[in-house]
Structure formats: structure tokens, C-alpha cells
Amino acid sequence: MEAARAARPDDLERLSELARLLLTELAPMRGGGVWAARDARTEPLDEVLGGLLERDDARVVVGTIDDVPVGFGIVEVETLRDGRRLGRITELFVESEARAVGVGERVLEVLVAHCAKAGCVGVDALALPGHRAAKNFFEEAGFTARLLVMHHALDRPEGP
Length: 160
Fold this sequence. Notes:
The chain is of the alpha+beta class and about 160 residues long. It has one domain (about 1-140): Gcn5-related N-acetyltransferase (GNAT) (Aminopeptidase). The chain has 5 helices and 5 strands. The protein has helices at about 10-25, 30-40, 45-55, 105-115, 130-140, and strands at about 1-5, 60-65, 70-80, 85-95, 120-125. A 5-stranded mixed β-sheet has the order 1-2-3-4-5, with helices on both faces. Helix 4 (about 105-115) links the parallel strand 4 (about 85-95) and strand 5. Helix 1 crosses helix 3 (about 45-55). It is globular, with a radius of gyration of 16 Å. The model has no long low-confidence stretch (mean pLDDT about 95).
């Protein structure tokens, strides 16, 4: 049975493994290189994720099947300039073999409920432009595009 719960310190090793799988999956996708260099969590992941467990403005959630962690999600609550609060889902990942059975949906429900309890006016989530499955997942959960980030690469091939 799929479920989701708040992450605990004894989940950190598995959470770190899942975060590395997320990076491996997203980095080669369109937009993934810049995401990996700018937004992805960095090593040592157990310390970074452990720090999130201690924050009042963040929630780390573990998605499980029969109590075995197969996914995770992270939301951070930020205060906007006008004083309102906004939830930002920075990661939501489920191992490929465990997708399409409801784990991601359970994780998302817990993250959104946390934001509602924290008094957020809304929740943002990120999806890479080439990750159609992630876009569809969030749209099916009632999310709509609020902002599109346009990017112009200035990388130049090495020349003579």
C-alpha cells in the first residue's frame, strides 16, 4: 500500500540515495544541466537533507510502498515581500519502478497540506521543460503554470 509520511533522521541515507537518483535522471534532460548546477541539492546530502528536517519552514516527506521508501518530496515555505507565504516544492521524486501507483500523489498531498497549515497563499512546483510526465503529474493535481523561465544558452563550442 502506498503512503507518505514526514521524513525522520533514520531516513537520511535512503533520502540521499533518492536525491542522487533524481539528479541522475534530471541532469541530462532539457534544462537539467542548469538545474543541476543551480538548484539541485549538493553533497554531503545526508547533512543537507538533515538540516531541512530541523527547519520549521521546510517539510521533507517520504513516499512508501509497504513501508519501504521509494520516493520523497521537499517543500520550503518562503515569506513574500508583502508578508504572505508561498510554498515551493523543490523536489518530488519517485523511483521509476514505483511510479503510476499513487506514491507521488500521496507525497504531494502531504506537502500541500503542510503549506495550507503554514498559511500559504499557494504552492509552486518546478518541472523541467522536457519532462512532460512531471508537467502532466502537476496539472492532474490542479497546478497551472504561473511563470515560465526562458533561457538563452551562451555556451560556445571549443574552437581552434
